[in-house]
Every structure is written in structure tokens, then in C-alpha cells.
From TrEMBL:
It comes from the Bacteria. Residues 1-83 form the GST N-terminal domain. Gene3D superfamilies: 1.20.1050.10, Glutaredoxin. PROSITE patterns: GST_NTER. This is Glutathione S-transferase.
Length: 215
């Protein structure tokens, strides 16, 4: 049977999905694209995803899944390890926070990483600063609410913990989390140490960033 193909870029959100495949023990193939390729209209990624965003998952039957939250829920249909199911008490807080991550936090990178796509040169720096500030506010909000025991939803490891671990390596970077969001940072460190994920972190150049913050 043909394996699903994950179109990815090193250090990006595709690492969140790839970590889930690994922990769930599901077979997959991965094609790492260079970041500059993502912007190319004629790239292999554009063939499957007109927005040219990763992660993009090409299923065995040719159907395409984009958006990390959609892929996460799809994976949960096959393996419930990281996705609480309908009858579980953690289902509602899981869904709430998963969609919050991709609808509130992710757009700050969409607009802030490449402000020139949305505003003129004169406004680019202001958009970058405002989205960075908004992102920090959102992380601080979650820091107040979370009670890791030892994971974000208690004693159950979920995909939310994977999201946090990877996103902790993005702006404002691990050192900021250690100082301003120590509870979230503690969870991220715990996930970063999972043995099965060490090769993935290395491939995505995420592991060393967490180590620097711990030094």
C-alpha cells in the first residue's frame, strides 16, 4: 500500500505533523522542500496546495490534506494516542486549544514573517512588531491558564504538547519562554527529550535551540 507523502520544510510546522506520525507508529514518506521553493508557483508543492504552505499531506488515494489541525484530526481517526476521542473529557479542551493555536497564534506568523506580502515597505516593520507583540500576549494568556500535570491536558500526552514543543523554537524563541512562560517551557522541554523524536529534532534543527535555552 502506498504511504501518505508529507511535503515539508525543515524547522517549520511540518515537524509537528511528522512527530505525530512517528509517535503513532504510522508509515509515511517525507519530502523536504527548501524554504525558497515554497514561494515558487511552479513547485511540486503548488501542484497540491495553491497556497504553497506546509505541511501538506498527499494521501495514498491522491487526496490532499493541508492545515496541521486537519491533519492532526485525520491522524486521530487512525490512532487515538495523541487526539482525545469524543467520549473523553479532554476532547473539548483539546479541540478548543488546537483551533486556538491555528486560528489565533499561527496567523501572527503568516502576517509577521512576510509582511511585504500584505503591506507596503513603509508598513512592514510595524506589522512585524505588532504581530510579534500579539503572539507574546497570546502565549502569556495560555501560561496563566495552563496547569501541566505533567502535560498540557494533565497526564495525557496529546498533539497540543507537540505543537508547543515545536512552536517554542520559533519567535520569540526558547529563552523568552523560559523567562516569561516557565510552565509552557517546562512542557516543551519534556517533549523535546522524547527519545523517539531526537532524529526528527535534529533533521529540523530544533533540538539545539532548546539546548541553548537550557544552558
Amino acid at each position: 500500500m502506498q504511504k501518505p507523502l508529507l511535503l515539508a520544510a525543515r524547522g517549520g510546522g511540518s515537524a509537528i505533523v511528522e512527530a505525530q506520525f512517528i509517535l503513532c507508529g504510522l508509515d509515511y514518506e517525507v519530502d523536504y522542500l527548501e524554504w525558497q521553493q515554497l514561494a515558487e508557483p511552479g513547485s511540486r508543492l503548488a501542484k497540491y496546495n495553491p497556497l504553497r504552505e506546509i505541511p501538506t499531506l498527499v494521501l495514498a488515494d491522491g487526496q490532499v490534506l493541508s492545515e496541521s489541525a486537519a491533519i492532526t484530526l485525520w491522524l486521530g481517526d487512525f490512532n487515538a494516542l495523541l487526539v482525545p476521542q469524543a467520549a473523553e473529557s479532554q476532547r473539548v479542551p483539546f479541540l478548543r486549544r488546537l483551533i486556538w493555536l491555528v486560528s489565533a497564534l499561527y496567523p501572527t506568523f503568516t502576517f509577521g514573517d512576510h509582511p511585504e506580502r500584505f503591506v507596503g515597505a513603509a508598513e512592514s516593520d510595524a506589522l512585524r512588531r505588532s504581530t510579534d507583540g500579539r503572539r507574546q500576549q497570546l502565549w502569556l494568556q495560555w501560561e496563566k491558564e495552563v496547569r501541566p500535570e505533567p502535560y498540557l491536558l494533565g497526564n495525557r500526552l496529546t498533539a497540543l504538547d507537540i505543537y508547543l514543543c515545536v512552536m517554542c523554537c520559533w519567535r520569540p524563541r526558547p529563552a523568552w519562554f523560559a523567562s516569561h512562560c516557565p510552565k509552557l517551557f517546562t512542557v516543551a522541554k519534556r517533549i523535546s527529550a522524547i527519545p523517539e523524536l531526537q532524529a526528527l529534532w535534529k533533521r529540523n534543527e530544533l533540538n539545539w535551540k532548546i539546548k541553548v535555552a537550557n544552558s
